[in-house]
Specification:
The N and C termini lie far apart (38 Å). The protein is mostly helical. Helix content is 78%, strand content 0%. The protein is elongated. Helix 2 runs antiparallel to helix 3 and helix 3 runs antiparallel to helix 5. The protein has one domain. It comes from Symmachiella macrocystis. Pfam families: DUF7670. This is DUF7670 domain-containing protein. Keywords: Membrane, Transmembrane, Transmembrane helix.
Length: 110
C-alpha cells in the first residue's frame, strides 16, 4: 500500500513536470509539504525497518494533519490522506508482532 501511495505521488509529480515548484511553497504550506514528505520517506523506510518506517510515517501524517488544521481550521478531506496512515499502522503492528514472537522464542530457548 505504501508503494502504491509513493507511486501515485511520483505520477502526479511527473505529470506536473516543470510546473511543480516546491521551493515556492512558504510558511505553513512548506512545512506541511515537509511533513507529508517525511511520511512518504517513512513508507519507503518501512520496507527495511518496520518500526522506524512506521513511526516516521505516522509522525509525518500526524504533523501534516495538525498543520493543516492550524492553517485551515479543518482536517484534510477525501480518502487519500487518511489512507496514508494505514501503511504506518500496519508496519508497527508487524514490527510489534515480530518482536513479540522473537521474545517468545528466546524465552522458550532458555
Amino acid at each position: 500500500m505504501g508503494l502504491l501511495i509513493i507511486a501515485f505521488v511520483v505520477v502526479l509529480a511527473v505529470g506536473e513536470g516543470r510546473d511543480l515548484d516546491v521551493t515556492a511553497l512558504g510558511g505553513i504550506e512548506g512545512t506541511m509539504f515537509l511533513a507529508w514528505l517525511m511520511a512518504l520517506i517513512g513508507m519507503a523506510v518501512l520496507w527495511k525497518w518496520e518500526g522506524a518506517g512506521g513511526i516516521l510515517t505516522l509522525s509525518g501524517m500526524a504533523a501534516f494533519y495538525v498543520l493543516n488544521f492550524a492553517a485551515s481550521g479543518r482536517f484534510p478531506g477525501g480518502p487519500v490522506f487518511p489512507a496514508c496512515f494505514l501503511p504506518g499502522v500496519l508496519a508497527l503492528i508487524c514490527w510489534w508482532r515480530d518482536r513479540r514472537l522473537h521474545n517468545d522464542e528466546h524465552s522458550r530457548a532458555m
